[in-house]
Amino acid sequence: MWYDNGVRIIIKTTNLELTPALNEYIETKLWSLNKFVDKWDIEGAVEAKVEIGKTTKHHKKGNIYRTEVSLALPGKVIRAQQEEWDIRVAIDRVKRKLQQEIKKHNDLQRDH
Questions:
Q1: Which of 4, 88, 95, 98 is most open to solvent, judged by the fewest CB atoms within 10 Å of its CB?
Q2: pLDDT value, residue 83
Q3: Structural domains of the chain sorted by starting position, each given as residue range(s) with its CATH number in brackets
């Protein structure tokens, strides 16, 4: 669990060890989203539930890693998920998806 500027991050793993390096990588990536959620910068207003893991399916080409994030904003939950050959690639792509969805949400809020 990690708190910063009101953002609460909860990380859960499945079939994968959460190393300090991987934990730091996730936190760094999600930290970069702070600039998009600053307007909800009140204690406990934004929560990110991160689930990472190695799939248990039998793949012929090696391991497949899955990353899923549910970002709870006041009045809205934004979800993104990705499966990739590398856990860091999956995290990067989920972060980009979240960033796009947050921007859309912010634009809609601004238009209303």
A1: 4
A2: 94
A3: 2-111 (3.30.160.100)
